[in-house]
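Deviation from plan, reported transparently: uracil complex.
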Amino acid sequence: MLSLSASAMPRTLDPEVRSALAARIRYYNEMGIYDFYRRPLSDPSGEVAATIAVDEAETAVLANQPVLGAEMSPRKAAAVAIPIVEENIFEVIALKPEQSVSDPAKALKIIREDLGDCTRCVLHKQGRKQIVFGVGNPKADLMFVGEGPGADEDEKGEPFVGRAGQLLNNMIKAMGIDREQVYIANIVKCRPPGNRTPEREECETCSPFLMRQIAVVKPKVIVALGAVAAKTLLAMSASMAQLRGRFYDFRPTGIRSNDPNWDGCKLAVTYHPAFLLRDPRQKGEAWKDLQMVMKELGMKAPKQTT
Ligand code: URA
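Because the crystal trials were delayed, the predicted structure below was used instead.
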């Protein structure tokens, strides 16, 4: 938790605190609260109140519950102390260019064009051969999100085409559907060198494009494959044991919905196929996760033919 020392307050928020605040704002939005104003401050610099706000958000996120009783009132505006930051996380989010296009395949193309020959993070100069955008049904009910491309994906320009991809295909088949029916993407679109885990900054730089892809595909359920996907999408830090076994309500961050028929979806977390290759004993657990997803989607597993 942060100290109340005004002088110690940084002017730019720590990414974790920023994520916490963003999650808090989403929480307010879900309660129908959209307008925020600064609480009058006896401290003219605003830094003490800013620290308190950050402190509260942090506490709430750690405890996974609302903090201020007053915030639960049905008013349409909440008096919260907001930090002085260089970027304004309360700014009105504009519609994205693809949101004026009704054909999801075309909308995805717009996002791909916007991404361009991306140089937004260091991964562009660390040996990537190509950007791995995403693949599958642009109207899929089910979407899988992995961590980032490996060597095979980097070579082919398609997610999950290596050994982990073969296992993912088998998992999808076991659900009674084909790979072509789902949409598959990753948190980062460029291969991290030596298949290292993508850095948080790389995830944060790249994931807004994934959020846009999700908002176009409008799945009913997202399956986050592994901890990196889960933690990035949910903006929370927890172990796989804590993250699995339940659904989360998910809305793509930074996207203003313009579709009355889609206001987010369910998100489930399961093990990454690469982890299952290393520890096949966990496949049964992953299957339980997928069965939970199938139930939500009203799917029945095909009969085993042995
Ligand atoms: N692992 C991932 O997370 N994504 C891929 O596309 C391939 C392997």
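Strands lie at 35-37, 77-79, 135-136, 142-146, 183-186, 221-225, 248-250, 265-270. We consider this an acceptable substitute for the interim report.
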